[in-house]
Automatic annotation (TrEMBL):
<dbReference type="InterPro" id="IPR052893">
    <property type="entry name" value="TCS_response_regulator"/>
</dbReference>
<keyword id="KW-0597">Phosphoprotein</keyword>
<dbReference type="InterPro" id="IPR001789">
    <property type="entry name" value="Sig_transdc_resp-reg_receiver"/>
</dbReference>
<dbReference type="InterPro" id="IPR011006">
    <property type="entry name" value="CheY-like_superfamily"/>
</dbReference>
<dbReference type="Pfam" id="PF00072">
    <property type="entry name" value="Response_reg"/>
</dbReference>
<feature type="domain" description="Response regulatory">
    <location>
        <begin position="6"/>
        <end position="129"/>
    </location>
</feature>
<feature type="modified residue" description="4-aspartylphosphate">
    <location>
        <position position="59"/>
    </location>
</feature>
<protein>
    <submittedName>
        <fullName>Response regulator</fullName>
    </submittedName>
</protein>
Amino acid sequence: MSVACRVMLVDDSEADLLFTRIVLERAGQGFDVLSFEEARAALDYLRSDAPRVELILLDINMPGMNGFEFLDAYEALPAVQRNGSAIVMLSSSADPSDRERAAAYRCVAGYVTKPLDPAAAARLRQQASA
């Protein structure tokens, strides 16, 4: 496998974080997974000098700061802090208006409905490098 792909999971559900981590690790794509239960903590990580994240898997419905509020804050970050990360919405919402709203953000590379399945996990590597 090639160089690891650092993935940031942002989801308020501990169970969803665990399940998604397991699916990513079993996908055989070399994912290095970081988990955040709060969107603000994920933004703080991006603002820090921590290692670059290639892919962000972002839930929509979270308390405190939801996924769309995260996207607004992410797009306001300096380019050096965004660092070319691809964002894929990973949400239980199958609502077409949520898909359309997410697609309106330049930083959003895709939308996957939970739960993440192995085939979708394998395709994420391509979205991260696109």
